[in-house]
Structures are given as structure tokens and as C-alpha cells.
Amino acid sequence: MKRAVVVGAGVGGLATAIALRAIGWNVEIFERWPRIVGEGTALGIHPDAQAGLAGLGLGRELHERTVPYRRAQIRTPSGRRLADLPLKRIERRGGAPVRMLSRVSLIEMLAQRVNPATINTGVEITDPAALRAGYDLVVGADGVRSAVRKAFFTGAAEPRYTGVVAWRGVIEGFRPQEYGETWGRGQMFGMTPQAPGVTNWYAPVRTPEGVTESLDDLRARFAGWHDPIPRVLEAVDEETVLRHEIYELAPPLPSYVTGNVALVGDAAHAMAPALGQGACQALLDAVALAACLKAHPDDIPQALRSYDARRRPAAQRMVAASRWMTGLAVADRLTGPRNALLRLLPL
Q: Which InterPro entries does UniProt cross-reference here (predicted)?
């Protein structure tokens, strides 16, 4: 039985372990945190990623844990409608609506399908090169600051600050009249469903690198925006708010594979948040990697080349689209022409 080691137990790492195990591989996972961390708020699972989860045997549970997201608008800070988010188009093309769940719930769902004896937590991989000799495959699923990428793809790409800090949280027992996003100058505010009776909110804001703002600063930023945005922020419990500087990889990697090493998820293609595709792309990576290894069971280098050809162009197009859309959503100038453009775009 072939042996793989997966470094990182996030969405991409756990999904990869499940997918490899399903094609007969022996898989071991190393995670640097003392436990599997399910931190985060809502994720939108697009139809192609839903199909990937169904292929891992998680389709029914996904539907049980998620709520559909079918209608949402983009508005100005005064509340004027600019456009609809393209949820109907996604459903029409993909045959299913985007489905929302918390990252905690997705991690729980994936972790339950992995043999606990194969997960090694609290392990910092300081010499990834040493893993190559002991395993047929090394998978780097260890995020934007990937130790695996740093060891095997030297100088190819580095984390680059996008200029955006993402604030996120949830409000229980509250549902807005309209879900969607409000685009202003240098910042935006969005709300989606997360679970019955639970609303997810997020606020990407342009912030100089290294500057730390408080929740009161965030409230001040959105003071005067249309209802219910100020009310939502006023009701937020500071202990539950998440704040992260957003990084992407630059320049794009010339390959996601080298030798018997493959990258998945943010280790390969960390991206800006506007399209909400990070988790989906990680799931697609995991499914594709296993499919390519199954198609070339006796030729791992060929399987990895096939994986790279299948996933890198698609993922890098998504990175570019996410960068463009994030820049549009939090533009700090020319917001008038931007708003006029939104009325014309076939979103």
C-alpha cells in the first residue's frame, strides 16, 4: 500500500486524506496546532465543491448541515441597490444553489471521516525534506505560509499583503431583510445566512500593513451606513470577532508539484476573499489529486503532472478573479464609475 503524508489538517488537508484513503492509500497527517482548529464563520460551498464532497461520501451530511443561499444584492452605503450577486446564475449553471455552513461545521464533517489514529497534532515540521524518503507522496496543505512550499519551491512565491483586513463574526437570532453586500470607499460590509437563525457578517477594509484597529474603530468606519449595518456591529460581542490580514501568493507558482510533492489549498493558491472560493478550491484540489493518482497508480510523477495541469490554471484564474473583485469591492477611489459599472455587469 502506498504511503502519503499530509502536512496540515485544514479543509484541504483533511479532504486530501479522505480522498487518498478512498483510493487505497495509507495516509498520515501532521498538524502544528495542538488540536484540529475549526475557527471561522460562514463558507459558501459552490456546486462543483458540493459534487466533490459528495464524491467523498459527504453529500447527504452536507445538505443536512447547510442552508441554501439564493438571493442577495449589492448596495451603496445609503442603501441604494446596484446589482444582484450572481447566485441565480451559479445555481443555473451548476445545477444547485450555493450552500452555506460554518467553517467549524465543515472541519467537523471532514475530521469525522478521518481515522483519529492517523492525525498527529502539535507537530511542527521543521525539515519537510526529510519526509520525502519515508513516503511515496508529500502533500503540503499547510496554508499561505507553507513550510512545505518554502522547502521545495524556493523563491517561487511569497505571501503578499493585499492591503485588506477581513473582520468576521456571527449574530444569532437575527435575519436581515436582505442578504448581500454594501460597497463603499475602501471598505465593504456583507451578510449571509450561516444556519437557521444565524447570520454571518464580514467586513473587508483597506488597512495599512501592521495597523491594528479596534472593534470601536470598525463601528466608526460604518457609522451612517444603511440599517442594519450599524445595529449589527453594535450588537457584536468583541470576544467572538475574528480579524485577519489577508495575504495572497505572488507571483503565481509555476507549478504545484515537484518530484513526489504536491501543494493543495492556500499553500498553492491563497487568494483574496471577495469570491468566497478558498475552501471550494481546496476541496477541488483534494478530489483532483486523488483522481489523478488513481488514473496513474504506478506513475506518481505523471499523476502529479496531470494534477498540476488540471488544477493550476483553474485555480490561478480564480485567484486573479478574486483579486480583481476584491479590489473593486473595496476601491478607495473612482467609486462612482465603479457603481455605474456594476449596473452594467452581467453578475
A: FAD-bd, FAD-dep_Monooxygenase_BioMet, FAD/NAD-bd_sf
Spell out the residues 6+ positions from residue 65 whose beta carbon is closer than 8 angstroms to its own: 101, 105, 106, 109
Q: Which three cell numbers stand for residue 71?
A: 438571493
Q: CB-side exposure of 260: number of CA atoms within 13 Å?
A: 19
Asked whether the beta carbons of 11 and 282 are under 8 A apart, the reply is yes
Q: What is the pLDDT of residues 242-268, one digit of tens each?
A: 999 999 999 999 999 999 999 999 999
Query: How far is residue 33's CA from residue 125's CA, in Å, rounded to a whole number?
Result: 11
pTM of the model: 0.95
Instruction: For 256-277, give one letter per residue: b (16+ CB within 10 A) or e.
Output: bbbebbbbbbbbbbbbbbbbbb
Q: Phi-psi bin for 60: left (phi > 0), alpha (psi -120 to 50), beta?
A: alpha
pLDDT in tens, 124-177: 988 888 899 899 999 999 999 999 999 999 877 899 999 999 999 999 999 999
CA 229 to CA 191: how far, in whole Å?
Answer: 9
What single-letter DSSP state applies at residue 253?
P
pLDDT band at 344 (very low <50, low <70, confident <90, very high): confident
CATH numbers and ranges of domains, the chain: 3-68+99-160+248-329 (3.50.50.60)
